């Protein structure tokens, strides 16, 4: 999606990823010397090769080799956005929480824990049950989370989370999950997108409703202010996703920050004046930012997760989606479908929340794997 936006601005893009990855299918190399690179975004040699081909380097995932990003930036031939120091803070979710706390940004109480039954028991005694045990690193789509409901599950949790460093987080009985995309320019100006409501299923983002509706007239401005303050505390340009918990009493806690375009901002492609992707490019290229305002009254994004290995089942569903008014289908060009894999998304736009919800119902009835 970033590559598609870059193509419209005549921005040459070189992609480092394995094989025929989705982004490489979108944008052809503009010259043989700017050919895409096959390899891992954690491989030092491949990152150095990428840096030698570009003026500005950016990431779409935080699980990259940040030491090498530091090295290529310090060598002075390439700008890296967001700053490697920001990626380093965000890569470690516990360190990220400590950083946010040092800027007085509210987060759930958490404790570093070693991987032993005694340490997990001690954390559960301090923070209570249920307890959210999380991997500090390499977490995505809830794959580094374990909900400890009883002391007796401690060993199961440690085995499930593997040999990654762990921390424990106090359980948050949120009433809603919300998110705000924020874009930050090279000169440090920040601009936020409307607040959205995110609905997760088994720890994975399922739906995003934009804009968030609330009876609390202060919520939207409070959430945007918290998100902007969080991003002001970090260095470097680009878009960031700020995930938050809304409590019953209206309080907000930041869950985590993504230093890149984010699933909660996919809706911006059809529903906002400027998409998160285009504004990410504008920010890192020092071009004027575009408006973050919505251009439709209401929208919802539905993630398409694989229900099985069947591509046929998937395209039967997306072909049906093409018949739903206001629906835009995005398939990512992944070569294999697997249960639980993010294969694409659909954005619905409409004149009202009621219209969006009735169109969404049509999609949910046919969603492979069910909608509940
Ligand atoms: P992402 O794909 O967003 O990067 P992740 O693997 O980093 O996900 P988190 O965002 O930490 O995981 O958690 C995933 C989901 O688990 C949250 O969106 C929320 O629904 C739930 N969750 C996380 N932390 C807590 C908590 N402390 N209390 C209650 N629920 C939580
Ligand atoms: Mg995460
Ligand atoms: Mg998350």
UniProtKB/TrEMBL annotation:
UniProt EC number: 4.1.1.21
Keyword annotations from UniProtKB, A to Z: ATP-binding, Decarboxylase, Lyase, Nucleotide-binding, Purine biosynthesis
Domain ATP-grasp span(s) in chain numbering: 97-285
Highest taxon in the source lineage: Eukaryota
Catalytic activity as recorded in UniProt: 5-amino-1-(5-phospho-D-ribosyl)imidazole-4-carboxylate + H(+) = 5-amino-1-(5-phospho-beta-D-ribosyl)imidazole + CO2
One record GO biological process: 'de novo' IMP biosynthetic process
UniProt keyword ATP-binding present: yes
Metabolic or biological pathway, per its Swiss-Prot or TrEMBL entry: Purine metabolism; IMP biosynthesis via de novo pathway; 5-amino-1-(5-phospho-D-ribosyl)imidazole-4-carboxylate from 5-amino-1-(5-phospho-D-ribosyl)imidazole (carboxylase route): step 1/1
Main enzyme class: lyase
GO molecular function, one term: metal ion binding
Keyword Magnesium belongs to the record: no
Family: In the C-terminal section; belongs to the AIR carboxylase family. Class I subfamily.
Name this polypeptide is given: Phosphoribosylaminoimidazole carboxylase
Complete-protein stretch covered: 1 to 372 of 563
